[in-house]
Amino acid sequence: SSLKKSSSLTCVISNNSKIGDGGGITVNAALTCVNCVISNNSATGNGGGVAMSLGNSSNQGFNVFIQNTIISDNQASLSGGGIFASTLSHPDSTNRLKVDKTTLARNQAGIDGGGIFVDGDALSPQTQFVLFTSTISANTAKGNGGGLVIMEGPTSIQDSTIAFNNADVDRVGG
Q1: Angle, CA of 80, 90 and 81, to the nearest 5°
Q2: Count of beta carbons in the 10 Å neighbourhood of residue 13
Q3: Which of 29, 56, 63, 81 has its Cα between 20 and 30 A from that of 124?
Q4: pLDDT tens digits, residue range 54-95?
Q5: Cβ distance 82 to 114 under 8 Å?
């Protein structure tokens, strides 16, 4: 599913595959995802479960809120087995990814960030990533960050567990 406008979901998104980014969901603007299961999806690009990409010239940015959701058993050939967020966008945009009371488990990335991969942008200092009361566990990456990779941007992690993840490069599991 590709979402370009604000959307609100209470759903099951499962057993999908995509050539490119976003095996389960591709987000180009805003998404509120509450009480969902996103599982067993695959992408030949980034974001086996969910992919947020803004490589456009719009200054809208993205605003993504994921709460009480299970993101599990997804695969990305590149980065972000569970969630991939690329904030490479217009320098005036505001980009937010907030994950609350969510479990990311058993996701796999062919490169970095088995659970979550956030690629910030020095030109967009408004990019914010918040992880609150969530669990990232048993994810794997063939590169770095079995659980989580944050490339750049303000990050807040509170009351969360990041454990039992595995990464092949430099043994950085995180």
Answers
A1: 5
A2: 22
A3: 81
A4: 655 555 667 889 999 999 999 999 999 999 988 665 556 667
A5: yes
